[in-house]
Amino acid sequence: MRAQELVGDDFWDPLAQFDMGELAGPVDGHEEKELAFKVDIIRFDQPSILVGIRSVGRVDEAALFASEVAALGRAVPKVRRQSGAARIIARTLLGTLGFPPVPILTARSGVPTWPAGIVGSLAHHDRVAAAAIAEKDTIGAVGIDIEPDEPLPDGLIELVTTSRERSIYDLRLLQRRDLFVLKEAVYKACFPLCNQILDFQDVEIDLKSGAAYVSRVDRTFSIELYNSENIIGLAYLSIHSVLSSR
After folding, report:
1. Would you state the pLDDT for residue 7?
2. % of the chain surpassing 70 pLDDT
3. What's the average model confidence in pLDDT over 181-188?
4. Residues 163-188, buried b or exposed e (16+ Cβ, 10 A)?
5. 3-class SS string, 67-122
6. Is the pTM of this model over 0.70?
7. Could you say which of 15, 36, 144, 190 would form a disulfide bridge with 132 (CB–CB 3.0 to 4.6 Å)?
8. Predicted pLDDT at 246
9. What is the C-alpha to C-alpha distance for residues 28 and 33, in angstroms, rounded to an integer?
10. Using alpha carbons only, what angle is made at residue 160 by residues 154 and 162, rounded to the nearest 5 degrees?
11. How many alpha carbons lie under 13 Å from residue 62 in its C-beta half-sphere?
């Protein structure tokens, strides 16, 4: 499942009006430049996971390494800016763990590649990007998703939620994007481990216990939700949970 398939296409924007090519290009020796980019750190209950967000800016494309630009191919400027914003956050978080700025490319499956010993996840909507990272000796899998704090588009409740979720949550919550964001985060945490494409119906969210059960792979992920101007979903497994299930 993919957020842009259901809640708007993040990849093509008919209103995009700026050509960043004249303003900024790929920068390889850009440690000093990245210091000027602002990242807001978000605190979750799980202290082993570092999370940050930032507003997508007109110059964020300049933060991309040449190899990252090449991997994006003919992506429109909007996508390059969003990708750059997510990587600014990720490199900032990695820097707190002592890592130098490095390209964050994606595998053929679309999963980001991280330095040795790190798990992580990237996300964005039109205006804000997010990233989460953790060290593998503590966290075995992590996924993050972000959406604006707006209602789900009409007609998506039954697609996104299970019958049990519709029976235990009131309409006000079902009309929010909370469950959507959490399920996307679970998918991002689950896919690198299980290599399984999930449907929304494969993931059941228990907000009270802070858990998400994935029936297709018989795994339970811890989940956390952060609400402000954005809704941020975080899903993860401890390294102990990952190793014990093998």
Report:
1. 32
2. 85
3. 98
4. eebeeebeeeebebbbbbbbbbbbbb
5. HHHHHHCCCCHHHHHHHHHHHHHHHHHHHHCCCCCCCCCECCCCCECCCCCEEEEE
6. yes
7. 144
8. 65
9. 10
10. 125
11. 17
